[in-house]
Specification:
This protein has a single domain, classed as Alpha-Beta Complex (Nucleoside Triphosphate Pyrophosphohydrolase). By secondary structure, the chain is α+β, with helices and mostly antiparallel strands. It is globular. Helix content is about 20%, strand content about 30%.
Length: about 140
């Protein structure tokens, strides 16, 4: 089963980081940053790797917390969701997709604007209501 990660990065003011997809799936929609978990790779290590590759945000800038997982048996894949708050300002370095901050007044359930069939809205609500999950001490 192929693993993927989604990473929710918040600034201290509460803004949430997105990338605007330049290719399918979700061409033209805003999505959370993330990517594939390589075979044998630890979930946290994969999340930090993908975050750095796509944004330039390193482990020194954020402490990630493993918040939830989704398993899609009909697609033979799973998604691990990580959350973190930046420790100060960071100069973003885009890999493929433009990076954009949205404030928390956005309707993250808007499927005409955001990828994930409403899952992004669900994840944001989980953070609002229940917090950010467990971190891994390195």
């Amino acid at each position: 089963m192929q693993g993927y990660n989604c990473i929710m990065i918040f600034r201290q003011n509460g803004d949430l980081l997105f990338c605007k997809r330049k290719k399918e799936p979700y061409l033209g929609l805003y999505n959370l940053v993330g990517g594939k978990i390589e075979e044998g790779e630890d979930g946290f290590d994969s999340a930090y790797r993908e975050l750095y590759e796509e944004t330039g945000i390193s482990q020194d800038n954020v402490n990630l917390h493993h918040m939830m997982d989704f398993t899609y048996y009909n697609q033979d894949c799973y998604v691990e969701v990580y959350v973190g708050y930046l420790e100060g300002e960071v100069l973003l370095q885009e890999e493929d997709h433009p990076l954009v901050w949205f404030d928390m007044t956005e309707d993250f359930f808007d499927r005409s604007k955001f990828a994930g069939e409403g899952n992004i809205g669900h994840m944001v609500e989980q953070v609002r209501q229940y917090g950010i999950g467990e971190s891994k001490i390195y």
